[in-house]
């Protein structure tokens, strides 16, 4: 009986370790920074250069507003690109505001650490 309990305890420990790893993976999911752009867009190219030092803190998703499936974004942002959303919420337009980006990334990172 004691041998069986020992194996059960080992199984519980193994399951708990897997659970913690999965929970940790959820916490480390990077936020998505969406760049609404078109080609050519020199301001967008400049913005992407400014973002390079932060590339390990978010996933950059580019949306070409000139594609037919993005016509709603084209109507909204045709005179304002580059436009950035962070996790689906408007963040900034025209130029990268490093201070604002830093503040929002830090806020998301702190929320993730507090889960």
TrEMBL record:
The family assignment reads: Belongs to the glutaredoxin family.
Q: Which UniProt keywords apply?
A: Electron transport, Transport
| SUPFAM superfamilies in the cross-refs | Thioredoxin-like
Q: Which InterPro entries match?
A: Glutaredoxin-like (IPR008554), Glutaredoxin-like_YDR286C (IPR052565), Thioredoxin-like_sf (IPR036249)
Provide an example Pfam family for this protein.
Glrx-like
* Record keyword Cell membrane present: no
Question: What name does this protein carry?
Answer: Glutaredoxin-like protein
Q: Does the keyword Electron transport apply?
A: yes
**What gene does this protein come from?**
CUNH5orf63
